[in-house]
Fold these 2 entries.
Entry 1:
Amino acid sequence: MDQAIGLRNRTSYAEITPGKNDSKLSYDNSASTIRVFAITSGKGGVGKSNIVINLALAFDEMGKNVLIIDGDLGLANIDVLLGLTPKHNIHHVFQGEKSINDIILDGPGNIRIMPASSGVQELAELQDEQKLFLMEMLEVLEEEIDVLLIDTGAGISDNVIYFNLAAQEKIVVITPEPTSLTDAYAMIKVLHTRYGERHFRILVNLARDDKEALNIYNQISRVADNFLDGLSLDYLGFVPKDHNLPKAVMKQQPVLNVYPDSPASKAFPTLAKRLQAIKPGRNDGNIRFFRHRLFNLG
Ligand SMILES: Nc1ncnc2c1ncn2[C@@H]1O[C@H](COP(=O)(O)OP(=O)(O)O)[C@@H](O)[C@H]1O
Ligand SMILES: [Mg+2]
């Protein structure tokens, strides 16, 4: 990873030159541009995985083709939350036993899921070749995907950093708990100071109402303004604390499906529309672009 990051830091976007006959490699913002969102937090248990599956459903209802990547590669959660029992997962792909298409699962609606493994410790820290391989595999699927949602898992591990760097938009989930704020700040700080990431979107979960959510957002925004230069933290919105969400978890179904009129459920379509409205950046193109961006491939 250090090597990859070192390489990346030495590379500016301008230096990434497509091969002459490489018609697929376009960095323009055409309608086919895939949108890649990383849902991250620092702290665990703040609602990332639930946010990912319900956002996925909201995008699905908007007619988008959605793929979820369970980025907590060694501690799978997404499949459990959806009541799925994958026979094979990303581990089998890395072992060369299965192709990426063999492991992709069909979820609710038209959502597809790339499942992680549970209890495979070596996946907790991907090797550089594996990171590259994963990007290459995603390229195969890219034509069929409009929205890629990555549940990064908790912590500031190598994998979490990797998935954040691969995403166009980094959505940092915070809650009213003080430890959630400090952990989110730590994550933002590392991505900003070590990897030059400047733009994050803050999503407040478990808030009482929008007033409390904005208050929490203002807290992290103030600290970031005071201590980190050139950073922008945008307020994306909030998901209210909702007793139906843990009930949906127990049923292993998205709250949006089982309690569609519940307050949390109502938040997700709005959030998905806001994310959809974000214009792709000048350099946002396709998976191959991220591969180049992460690994400086010529
Ligand atoms: N908006 C919410 N309202 C009520 N409970 C929530 C909400 N979001 C998350 N939870 C609770 O927090 C638990 C952890 O959520 P999860 O999505 O697994 O977090 P993470 O992926 O960040 O570890 C859920 O099982 C649920 O009980
Ligand atoms: Mg999770």
Entry 2:
Amino acid sequence: MDMETLRLGSRGPDVKLLQSLLRRIGYNPGPVDGIFGSQTRQAVIAFQRDNGLVPDGVVGPATWGILEKFLRGYDNYTIRPGDTLFDIARRYYTTVNAILTANPGLNPLNLMIGDTIVVPYGIDVVFTDIDYTYDVLERDVAGLKARYPFIEVGTIGRSVLGRNLYYLRLGRGPNEVFYNGAHHALEWITTPLLMKFAENFARAYSTGSTLRGYNPREIWERSSIYIVPMVNPDGVEIVLRGPSPDNPFYNDLLRWNDTGRPFSEVWNANTRGVDLNRNYPASWEEAKAQEAALGVDGPGPTRYGGPSPLSEPETQAMVNFTRRRNFRLVIAYHSQGRVIYWLYKNIVPPQALEIAELFARASGYEVSYTPAEAAYAGYKDWFVEEFRRPGYTIEVGIGRNPLPISQFNTIYNNNEEIMLLAPLV
Ligand SMILES: [Zn+2]
């Protein structure tokens, strides 16, 4: 991945990523605040000294090159004479089991000199304390796949600007469920929520341990958990980095955001100003009819349903993916209010309310009826209407979007059990 050079005075999501990583691997860059100050510089210099780099305190291509291995969470290691897995594990602060998990078929008693193996570092892959940009997502998806090769990884399509819409699959059982996040760009905290769940679930599966009393190996055989962690990557990039001048919609975006407030505070739509969760073919016309009353007259930060249902590649990909599978239940994650929505119109799929109540008990969230301004054209609305099976919009966290990443641990703890229950109900 091409990373920009960072130095004293640099700011932004990539500085946060650098700071978070340096902390993770034992340096002290100061707070993870996205401001490259003197403490961050000192930590970079220490890292450069330890890794045989020129200790100039500037993070250029050579330093990023070494950092990249830690960012993705593993190294490719070539076996040398006399190596044992135990020694390699110790050198990388990891475990023999982690190495065996990442290298199926590797015989620890017969290491072949010259063979290259994946050696995971003894650190987590998924970042949960920084701006979760598309780059971070891509790297974390690759990092999880390398460490846990039994995770199926792929794409369901591409965004307007050609970014991958990644999916992960945990499990190989016939009971299929589906979780997705970040339809709304401001609600990107739902992406690390899903990614962290994937990491914890895969780790527990690989070690044979339980998660909150649930047995991932049992779930793995019985069910398949599909996850699309970021439905709207173009929108998330607009929120986290601001619109880029090389975005073909750059001038449109500046015009469409007539709120007088920065994109980082208001932009929920994709890069064409379409609110993806009002673009599904479920009472789309009714949603459209509300727009004038909501002050919407075309593309913009929120609530514009697009020129026609499924006008956007992101919603098309979601619908196609859903139709090719046989989901017993879906959860669309949003981030506004610690509430579980389950009803669409007057359609009550079998068990839908009972399951909502289970989720409420597991999370401490409230089961609620859908407010009128969010009643139509969303993903769960479409799913419930087309399949007559349980579909949920779960709103995590509390406060104004974007929720601060400092809420992450609370949100994760509220939702982990929901994600373990859903494949079993
Ligand atoms: Zn939302």
